[in-house]
Write a structure and sequence with these properties.
Protein name: Acetate kinase
Bound molecules: adenosine monophosphate
Enzyme class: transferase
Number of strands: 12
Radius of gyration: 21 Å
Oligomer: single chain
Distance between the termini: 18 Å
Main location: cytoplasm
Order of helices and strands: EEEHEEHHEHHHEEEHHHHHEHHHEEH
Family: Belongs to the acetokinase family.
Structural class: alpha/beta
Strand content: 15-25%
InterPro entries: Ac/propionate_kinase, Aliphatic_acid_kin_short-chain, Aliphatic_acid_kinase_CS, ATPase_NBD
CATH class of the largest domain: Alpha Beta
Length: 382
């Protein structure tokens, strides 16, 4: 029996998501979620959560001891400048991921625990770390550098890393396939609009700019994150409002974005409230869409020639209203959405641009787990 299955683990700050994939046909054999880690009613910690995942798989006859399991792929949020591609986990690799914890204090520790527990359960199995930042490692210095003192920036690792990399990689490739062209031939703007949201500019399959920065806080308006903001707002809140750094961090990461503007972080709820004439919901929608349009314009200039604008993730795949509003009035850039195509719902990759549109507009469902599984399987097979 050959080993053709990959377990993908996505250990977040308070949850662990998993999928078991059969790589010969990309079918999903099992998937699940352990939530509320460390919270009331949930499991105690990440170690307990991972053990629960192992037990759930065992119950379904798909335990970690199965000889068909080829490898475990771990989503790791921050790879800094150390990791620019998927990496087979060794003690040295694990130590380096630990060294990067200050850059992602909420995420990397959970990822590390996931790797350690999986290694304990199956020491003989290849464990592969797939980094959220890796796809953006090709961004040129002009776009990756912040204009601050270079010595300070280098000393503290302050630069644009970007995130959602597995999604941007998967979706930009799938978009090229939808256009019937090779990734190397097309320039794509990817708009990953989930609870977290980011845009990327991909030239010929290579990422050249992205909206998220040193952390996932920068860029687009998100469910609970502000995205771009004048950094002096932070000083002002400290000096004038008397808030400490942690309170400001919480405000900008967890109490801002759609939630801060309207009281709801879910675009479905914003849509419902707008239909009832709710002004705060309308304002949140307008701010969200304005920011998106701004990035489409900016990345059009960065790329010079755009072949496709592609929407993905929860909002991007489902909200025709956001797609239409974000790209309305962009005929001058050669971007025209067809209202009928845009209104069609579905789970397949599809074009929503008008026949007359110079730039293709597409909806492409993302699949970060499959991308991680492919990277993992490729490395595990050597
Ligand atoms: P994700 O992070 O990709 O799972 O996206 C989650 C977000 O997608 C939710 O917070 C919602 O705001 C949004 N979403 C999911 N379904 C819909 C829908 N049918 N219409 C609009 N937004 C949606």
């Amino acid at each position: 029996m050959s080993a053709t299955r990959v377990l993908v683990l996505n250990s977040g700050s308070s949850s662990v998501k998993y999928q078991l994939l059969e790589m010969t046909d990309h079918s999903r054999l099992a998937s699940g979620l352990v939530e509320r880690i460390g919270e009331e009613g949930g499991v105690a910690d990440h170690t307990a959560a991972l053990r629960q995942v192992a037990a759930e798989l065992e119950d379904r006859g798909l335990g970690l001891d199965s000889p068909e399991l080829a490898a475990v792929g771990h989503r790791v949020v921050h790879g800094g400048t150390s990791f620019t591609e998927p990496t087979l986990v060794t003690d040295a690799v694990l130590a380096e991921i630990e060294r990067l914890v200050p850059l992602a204090p909420l995420h990397n520790p959970a990822n590390i625990t996931g790797i350690k527990v999986a290694r304990d359960l199956r020491p003989d199995l290849p464990q592969v770390a797939v980094f959220d930042t890796a796809f953006h490692a090709t961004i040129p210095e002009a776009a990756a550098r912040y204009a601050i003192d270079t010595a300070t920036a280098d000393r503290y690792g302050i630069r644009r890393y970007g995130f959602h990399g597995t999604s941007h990689a998967y979706v930009s490739r799938a978009a090229a396939a939808l256009l019937g062209r090779a990734p190397a031939e097309v320039n794509v703007i990817v708009l990953h609009l989930g609870n977290g949201a980011s845009a990327s500019a991909v030239r010929g399959g290579v990422c050249v700019d992205t909206s998220m920065g040193m952390t996932p806080l920068e860029g687009l308006v998100m469910g609970t994150r502000s995205g771009d903001i004048d950094p002096a707002v932070v000083f002002h809140l400290a000096r004038v409002a008397g808030m400490d750094v942690d309170a400001i961090d919480t405000l900008l990461n967890k109490g801002s974005g759609l939630l801060g503007l309207s009281g709801d972080n879910d675009m479905r709820e914003i849509g419902r409230r707008m239909a009832e004439g709710d002004e705060r919901a309308r304002l949140a929608f307008d701010v969200y869409v304005h920011r998106l349009r701004r990035y489409v314009g900016a990345f059009t200039a960065v790329l010079g020639r755009v072949d496709a604008v592609v929407f993905t993730a929860g909002v991007g795949e489902n909200s025709a209203a956001v797609r239409a509003a974000a790209l309305s009035g962009l005929e001058g850039l050669g971007i025209e959405v067809d209202p009928v195509r845009n209104a069609v719902r579905g789970s397949a990759a599809r074009l929503i641009s008008a026949e007359s549109s110079r730039v293709s507009v597409a909806v492409v469902p993302t699949d970060e787990e499959l991308e991680i599984a492919r990277d993992t399987y490729a490395l595990a097979r050597g």
